[in-house]
Amino acid sequence: MTDMPPAILPPERFQQRLLAWFDAHGRHDLPWQQERNPYRVWVSEIMLQQTQVATVIPYFERFMARFPDVASLAAAGQDEVLHLWTGLGYYARGRNLHKAARVVVDEHGGEFPVHSLDEMAALPGIGRSTAGAIIAQSTGRRAVILDGNVKRVLTRLHAVEGWPGRPAVERRLWALAEHYTPDERLVDFTQAMMDLGATLCRRGSPDCGRCPFEAVCVAHARGEEKRFPESKPRKALPTRTTVMLLLQDGEGRVLLEQRPSSGLWGGLWSLPQFDDAEALQAWLDARAPGSELEPAWTPFIHVFSHFRLEITPQPARIGRLDAVDEARCWYDPSDPPSIGLAAPVKALLASLAPFALTTTAGP
Predict the structure, then answer these.
(1) Which of 34, 38, 187, 220 could be joined to 138 by an S-S link, Cβ 3.0–4.6 Å?
(2) Active site residues
(3) Which residues are in the HhH-GPD domain (predicted)?
């Protein structure tokens, strides 16, 4: 019988292997690694949550160009922040980023509380792992991280059974992360852990042949790399339906509404939404009498993490409209304002030509 790798590696051995690999093969030229400070690291960490590096880089660079420091971000309006976030998804991250900037300015004098893991983790949108990453990456002080990449590395290395979202499994992984985290080279170590998971110990196609832990990885020794980490028990995604009103005036402008600050697409601008065609018609009769409906476009599906949304775009020509209040605006596709848009709404608006609505096909 083949000898199995040890259950726990000595931390020094783990650190040496990891850092030697990172020095030769790690990522050293990411934009947030330049001019490193708590603000830049924080923005990158929030953007990188559930989003790949290649996608984040242009967003990060645009964000830094407009908001070079936490004070400029805190002073901005939410619309402008979400406009720059449009396309990254998970918009609660953008709203929390803005909220956290204001907390840092108002309650911490414009300085991130990197002296305290608990105070960092208490900021909106920052949990224990993100707080640890910001502290380690920006100050070099010892702080433990356990993001998705690190969970995957440790789960495979030790063949940790169970979905990592379960409290008992997560406690086990935090203990392993604590065990392996060194007292020195924290900037490199935390980046190396994230790089290893992102570039070699990938979710669907791990590159075990180039991994520094190939010889000691329990999952690899069993030939079960793809079994770990275990997936979250799946439930069938429910499907909801909505009708989106594409109400266009004689100048080609489209009516938008700002969503409530919480809930679906919180704080973003969207097309007016209705449960069904009857509710949409009732709204038009009450708010925009004399409007003419065009044939509805083909429905399409937008998938969220917890449900599927079937969207039916319904174009219409306006008759007249009651006064537009602060929660509504006219959007000119030929000269779009800098506001945050829900992703499917952005796609629908991009498909519109000024002064014309197609009546035969959807986006």
Answers:
(1) 38
(2) 45
(3) 47-199
